[in-house]
Amino acid sequence: MSKTTFAKIALLLLLGAGAVGLWVSGAYENLDPESARQLLIAAGPWGALAYVVAASLMQPLGISIHLFLLTAAMVWPPAVAVTLGWLASIGSGLTAYGFARFMARSWVRKRLPERLTRYDQRLAENGFRTVVLLRLLFFTSPPLQLMLGVSRVRFAAFLAGTAVGNFPQVVVSVFAGAWLKEYTETHPPETWPWGEILPTVFAVAAMLFGAKLAWDRLRPVTGEA
């Protein structure tokens, strides 16, 4: 059994054991946003550490870092939320970097989009600037996280570029979350005009989906031309 397969099985078993534990103990019944918020606040520094570790491990599995950033904005004051969210975004990058570089290098390389692998030469020559640019554009996108791990970028350039490039989006996301928290406190969701909101959302989603289908059909034609 390869190391990658073993790691996947171990992770699945760990997650399964955690889910069973929550169910058997009945703790899942108390899982709601407010109780989780109070739990993190009451835990003090340990709650902050648990938040950073959880985000660092779970974002590479496909859970958007924006969810964690919005959560931080709901729990802590903006300055603390930005700091913890920033550390979490760096931690998620380190997790993906380590996995791609030391555990699944060949597996990752085979599955990366070609447009990302083209940056490898730039990463080798101008690592810091290229990482900053990629982070500003793609933030913590899973393909980018993995690509940086198998690229020729130096670790110091990767870490510094990630820290600088992630910061702007962390700030924007946290302050958006703080605004959302304040808005929902004065305008509870049950008072929102859902009869108007939902049809609008579905209409926009349908138009975007239709546009994507049309683009996918036209792209081969334009490519041949």
Structure report:
With 225 residues, the protein is an all-alpha fold. The protein has three domains: 1-31; 32-192, no CATH class; 194-225. 28% of the residues are buried. The chain has helices spanning 3-25, 33-43, 45-58, 65-75, 78-103, 105-111, 114-117, 120-125, 127-138, 142-150, 155-186, 194-224. It is built from twelve helices and no strands.
Largest sheet: none
Level of helix content? over 70%
> What is the count of distinct domains?
3
Count of alpha and pi helical runs:
12
| Percent in strands | under 5%
Q: Based on DSSP secondary structure assignment, what is the total number of beta strands?
A: 0
Radius of gyration: 21 Å
End-to-end CA span: 48 Å
Helix and strand sequence? HHHHHHHHHHHH
Which residue ranges are poorly predicted, with pLDDT under 50 across at least 5 consecutive positions? 221-225
Look at the structure and give the mean pLDDT: 82
Shape descriptor: globular
SSE-based structural type = mainly alpha
Question: What keyword list fits this structure?
Answer:
225 residues, mainly alpha, 12 helices
Describe the structure in brief.
The protein is mainly alpha-helical.
Fold blueprint:
Blueprint: H1 3-25, H2 33-43, H3 45-58, H4 65-75, H5 78-103, H6 105-111, H7 114-117, H8 120-125, H9 127-138, H10 142-150, H11 155-186, H12 194-224
Helix pairs in contact: 2-3, 3-5, 4-5, 4-11, 5-6, 5-10, 5-11, 6-10, 9-11
